[in-house]
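User: Sequence recovery, please. Input:
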């Protein structure tokens, strides 16, 4: 399969945790634990709160650390009268490479629908940020057996109007809502079923080169002890990690999953 040509990506979504001082300590621990070779083999990215981005940027740039960073959300709008929002251009100026778009917590607590998510994907791409586009079904949808159709429809909605060139720059993350922060991980086969379907949809809509190159992550209770088996699936290229990314040793162990692969 084409998997070996896709560089694995481990992204730590810190959510609304870690103030800017603790962010510095956490990034330092990651950087001191992971070797240059490890950081070449696996791309490691942290996604702090907005208030920590400047501190993280200063540290990573100043010490030339081989860690990527990005934000957890952005406004769909250009700079202007949008109190409390953050524009993509501001994130780009801070050196962010990534921005999470459409996380299920944003969809649930901020009523973000596919139209808003699509506008945010566009805003990210317009500012040369790589969107980490999150899709995934809730428990009711899974129990009704509609998880594949639901998730593929979210992908379609978020990428509506984007060209193949643009979609080639997107990272997708499949995060079943029932697995987030619950300790209930999807089985590797469950995750592969959906992620395989997402890749097939990218192939159908945007062609082979986009589908073969696209990195698709799994997220939802990823821990050091389940990463290797998840990463062994043919279409899974990395993980979007919540809780375990707040503990340096755990996130480092996740990034070292290859040591545990049979
Ligand atoms: O939502 C997630 C990452 O974006 C997953 O969170 P947990 O790893 O805490 O389940």
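Assistant: Recovered sequence (262 residues):
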């Amino acid at each position: 399969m084409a998997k070996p040509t896709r560089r694995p990506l481990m992204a730590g979504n810190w959510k609304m945790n870690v103030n800017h001082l603790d962010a510095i300590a956490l990034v330092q621990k990651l950087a001191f634990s992971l070797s240059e070779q490890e950081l070449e083999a696996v791309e490691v990215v942290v996604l702090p709160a907005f208030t920590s981005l400047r501190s993280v940027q200063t540290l990573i740039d100043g010490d030339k650390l081989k860690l990527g960073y990005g934000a957890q959300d952005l406004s769909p709008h250009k700079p202007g009268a949008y109190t409390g929002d953050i524009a993509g251009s501001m994130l780009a100026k801070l050196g962010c490479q990534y921005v999470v778009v459409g996380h299920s917590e944003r969809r649930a607590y901020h009523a973000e629908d596919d139209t808003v998510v699509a506008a945010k994907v566009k805003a990210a791409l317009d500012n040369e940020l790589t969107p980490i586009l999150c899709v995934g079904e809730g428990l009711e949808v899974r129990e009704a057996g509609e998880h594949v159709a639901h998730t593929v429809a979210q992908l379609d909605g978020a990428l509506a109007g984007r060209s193949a060139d643009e979609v080639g720059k997107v990272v997708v993350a499949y995060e079943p809502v029932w697995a987030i922060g619950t300790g209930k991980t999807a089985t590797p086969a469950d995750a592969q079923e959906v992620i395989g379907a997402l890749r097939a949809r990218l192939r159908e809509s945007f062609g082979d080169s986009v589908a073969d190159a696209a990195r698709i992550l799994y997220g939802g209770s990823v821990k050091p002890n389940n990463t290797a088996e998840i990463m062994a699936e043919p279409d899974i290229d990395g993980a979007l990690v919540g809780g375990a990314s707040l503990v340096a040793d755990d996130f480092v162990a996740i990034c070292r999953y290859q040591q545990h692969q049979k």
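The mean pLDDT is 96.
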